[in-house]
Design brief:
Layout (H helix, E strand, L loop, with lengths): L8 H10 L4 E10 L3 E10 L6 H18 L4 E7 L11 H5 L4 E6 L4 E10 L3 E9 L5 E8 L3 E6 L8
Parallel strand pairs: 2-3
Antiparallel strand pairs: 1-2, 4-5, 4-8, 5-6, 6-7
Amino acid sequence: MRDRLRNDSSFKAIAPILKPIGLTLVDVRRDELSSSVRYTITITNEDHTAGIDECSKAHRLLQTRLTLLENDRDIDMEVSTPGIQRNIRDVYEFEVFTSRRCRIYESDENGWIVGIIESADEHQVTLAQAEREDNKEKIGTHQIPYSRIQKAKLTYAWEDIS
């Protein structure tokens, strides 16, 4: 699992702009096109209920700022929310999605571990209520170093939906 997003120049430029309006930058991708720049931005809010209104607000706020940052080049921007089954691409996202359910394919276990993200630091993620997905064996609290994570994604269970 990689840890690069927080050092990305686009992330550093966009995250502080969204914070005052209660939004958290989950991911940003910047692609150079022939005469323009494409940004794909994923946002959420504190209780992970961001929707179309928050995406519109972020788009309006960022459009002008990014145009200035890109020296008046055309900006093509897509702002969206992470969805309920997002693939986790960076260790930073474990911090963003603390208290959310996820599935992690752990190399030492040769299988999926499902649990609720309890905490994340610079070395590992801790899952609460963890269980092995294949045989439903309860593990309880389970710590997984990032070096052993091959894949991870958000997931949900009906009992999580309120």
